[in-house]
Amino acid sequence: MTIQLRQTCLVAKELEPVLEDLTDILGINRCYVDPGVGVFGLENTLMPIGLNFLEVVAPVEENTAVGRYLDRRQGDGGYMVITQADSAESQQQIRQNALDNGVRVAHEAQRGDWNLCQLHPGDLKAAFFEIESDQYNDFEGYWHPVGGLGWEEKVKQDVTVDYTGVELQSPDPVGLAELWGTVAGLPVSRDGSELAMELNNVMIRFVMEEDGRGPGLGGLDIKVADRDYVLEHAKKRNCYVNEDRVDICGVRWNLTDG
After folding, report:
1. Coil, strand, or helix at residue 67?
2. How far is Cα 20 from Cα 14, in angstroms, rounded to an integer?
3. Pair (42, 126) in one structural domain
C-alpha cells in the first residue's frame, strides 16, 4: 500500500490576507478556486507546493463547521491531511481500518471513477484524514480537487520546492501515532522522542501539544531552495520566528534546504 500526501488544507477567518502571506513568503502561485465549497458556506483557493497542493478555506456564512473549528482552535490553523492512495483497494482498506477502530466517515463523494473519503477529525483526535482514488492514481499528475489537469504551468519551485512533513500535535502523541498508524495501515517509527509515520513523500510527525491550542495540524515541513527569500519576506509580513521557521495562517512552517 502506498499513500501520497497530495494536499494540505488550512482554515482562515479571512481568505485574502492569508493568500497574500503564503504566496509572497513561500514564492508560490495560486492555481485553482473550487466553487463547489460554496455548499459548505466556504470560499477557497489552491496553490501548488511542488507537484502537490495547499488549500486555504474561509467561511463566508455564519454557523459553518469551519467557523466552529476556528473558534475551537482559537484562530487560523491546519485542518486536513489530504492523500491519494495507489488504488481503490488501498483506499477502501484504509476506510475499513478506520471503521474497525471506531473512526467515523465524516464525508464521502463519488463522481464517476473518482472517490473521496474523509475520516472524522474528532475520532482521529487531530485533523481530518482524507483519502482519494481515481482511475489514474498518478501522484504527479491528475488531481480532482484542482480540476484534474491544467495546474502544471502554475508550479514554481525556485523558492519552495515541496512538502517534506506534516506535524500533528496532541497531549498524547504516542496514542495519536498509534491511532493514525493503525488507520493508515502503516508502521510508526521512533527516533529518540520523535514519533513518525512515513507516507510515500512525507513523514507525518506526532508531537506534544505545547502552544495551548489543543490537538491539531500544527506544523508543516517544507524543502526550500531559497531560504533567504522566505525569511526576508516573512520578516516584512511579521511571520518570522527564527532562521528555521516562519508562522503563516496559524501553522508552523519548518524549513529545510534542498
Report:
1. helix
2. 11
3. yes
* Rg, Å, the chain Cα set: 17
Q: Which three cell numbers stand for residue 253?
A: 512552517
Tell me which long-range contacts 35-41 makes (C-beta under 8 A, separation of at least 24): 40/64, 40/65, 40/66, 41/66, 41/67
Q: Are residues 26 and 65 in the same domain?
A: yes
Closest by CA position to 26, among listed 257, 252, 251, 248: 248
pLDDT digits (tens, 9 = 90+) for 62-75: 888 899 999 999 99
Ramachandran category for residue 134: left, alpha or beta (phi over 0 → left; psi -120 to 50 → alpha): beta
Asked whether the whole model's pTM tops 0.90, one would answer yes
Tell whether 144 is covered by a domain.
no
| CA pair distance 86, 15, nearest whole angstrom | 32
Q: Are 132 and 10 found together in one domain?
A: yes
